[in-house]
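Bench notes, afternoon.
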Amino acid sequence: MEKIKKISIPDKSRVIVIGDIHGELDLLKELVQKVHVHRDDRLLFIGDLCEKGPDSSGVVDYIMELSVKSPNVHVLEGNCDTLVDDLMELNPDLIGYLNRREKSLFHEWMIKEDMTFSEGTGIEEMKNVLVNSFSKQIEWLSGLPTAIESERYLFVHAGIDPGEEWQETSRMEALTKRAFMEGYHCAGKQVIVGHWPVVNYIENGFSHAPLINHDKKMISIDGGCAVKSSGQLNALIIESGAYSFMYVDHLPDFEVKGDYMPHNQEAAGITFEIERLEVAEDFSRCMHKKTERMFWVKNEYIEDDGHNVKDDVSCTLLPVTSGERVQLVDGGCTGFDLVKKEGRVGWIPKGLLK
């Protein structure tokens, strides 16, 4: 890993960490305002500023401006931010990637230049146009570090190798490592990552909230923004050694008008292959093939063949109390609404939302 930036974070400083924005400029501005960033705070962005969302160009310009204005704003690269390398190196695979993507930083830049992208677009022509008009952004993105290290923390987009010489982690591994929290590391400090949505971890009980493992010295903060239907943009807040978080999303907000305390509150969610074993009115009892665990899955989320789920789906019955506020994820199912409370996604009976 060649690009490691070292910074000093005073013990009394509040640290705010945001990752995996994926072009959601409006959510980013809302979140920055919500956490009330002060001059002495350390604000870190841990990669994937671009791609998948509606305004990657706006996100890049906004964070560039923040980093220029304040020496306490630090940014590192994610795998989605390295497309500029493919452009500069004339990687022929870039054209195929852009042809498969409806939303991308390069699409936005080309539109601004009145340039229409097609499968036949020449990569050299595209490079000439974009370098001429967006050289400042390209240079800034190309220069982002792969890791940021402080006295107590190590920030990296996806993860590091488990060995003691974590600096030997390859750039590709640091940017694309999957399921980092399922492994371990020997860095000797808290490692904070994004990249892999926290909801993918079964142990997180279908929650988009940051996942903190004190024993392993690992924190994962990717809330699935622009990737998961119930996803959110997280800000991890470290203050006086304590961790908290805030989030924003695009989901409608409701007040709960009654209490619901289910007998079974097991927090769980599943993806991909299942085996439906028993059908009931609202949920079916299923075996998740990957883990061989049994769950009750909402019938509308099961494919007709009974062997797959249609989307990542929560299998949690969520306790709520009158007066609480929740976000509605899916109100189109019979008998139950799918809601989110403090990042945790689950089902409540219909009729409880004001």
